[in-house]
User: What shape does this take?
Amino acid sequence: MEQNCQRRAGEKRLIKQIDRRIVFLGKELAEVDSDIDAGVRASPVWRETEELLTSMPGVGPVTARTLIAELPELGQFERRKLAALVGVAPFNRDSGLGAAIA
Assistant: This one.
């Protein structure tokens, strides 16, 4: 977002302020990434889960760590139950009332 603002900024003073915010946010992001990395490395279960997830094509460290954080049930349920939990299971949501009303 700051980079988008920077592209539209016209004043040099404003551009310098935005530059400082971008540098600050970059450092903060690097620190958070480092903390997450340390947390994953410290947990044998998380490390094993990350290795398994990243072994699949198209799944990188960011996706793997997001799944670890947001879906701790991963690996505990069978795939159909997990799909239902995250809301991607193809369930009919018909009440049967639509035909009676029409």
About this structure: The chain is about 70% helix and 0% strand. Residues 1-42 form one domain.
